From TrEMBL:
Transmembrane regions: none
Listed name of the protein: V-type ATP synthase subunit F
One function term, GO molecular function aspect: proton-transporting ATPase activity, rotational mechanism
SUPFAM superfamilies to which the protein is assigned, alphabetical: AtpF-like
Sequence similarity: Belongs to the V-ATPase F subunit family.
Gene3D superfamilies for this protein: ATPase, V1 complex, subunit F
InterPro entries registered for this protein in UniProt: ATPase_V1-cplx_f_g_su, ATPase_V1_fsu_sf
Pfam family, one: ATP-synt_F
UniProtKB keywords: Ion transport, Transport
């Protein structure tokens, strides 16, 4: 299985390409939908990397793919500017998932 990147900037795409991961750069909602459809249709892609910006700007599109498709596994990654998440993101995620405050 292969990894594939859908990024919002060329620098992240270039860095991943140097690591052997192919990808595309998109900026608009329709471009993202088209890139996701092509990635889902390609059965060789097992892991789909998305920059975090897409999860923030188009959560309904990303969530729809996550909920309605078993493959590929979608992972949101920070871009070259770093993460947009709060420093305690993982603790908050665990608290929400198990219902206990850590």
């Amino acid at each position: 299985m292969k990894m594939f990147l859908i990024s919002d900037n060329i620098d992240t795409c270039t860095g991943m390409r140097l690591a052997g991961v192919e990808g595309v750069v998109v900026h608009e909602r329709d471009e993202l939908k088209d890139a996701l459809e092509k990635a889902i249709a390609n059965k060789e892609i097992g892991i789909l990397l998305l920059t975090e910006k897409f999860g923030r700007e188009f959560p309904q599109i990303v969530d729809d793919v996550k909920l309605n498709h078993k493959t590929p596994l979608i992972i949101e990654i920070p871009d070259r500017h770093g993460t947009g998440r709060k420093p305690d993101f993982i603790t908050g995620y665990v608290n929400e998932a198990i219902g206990l405050k850590l």
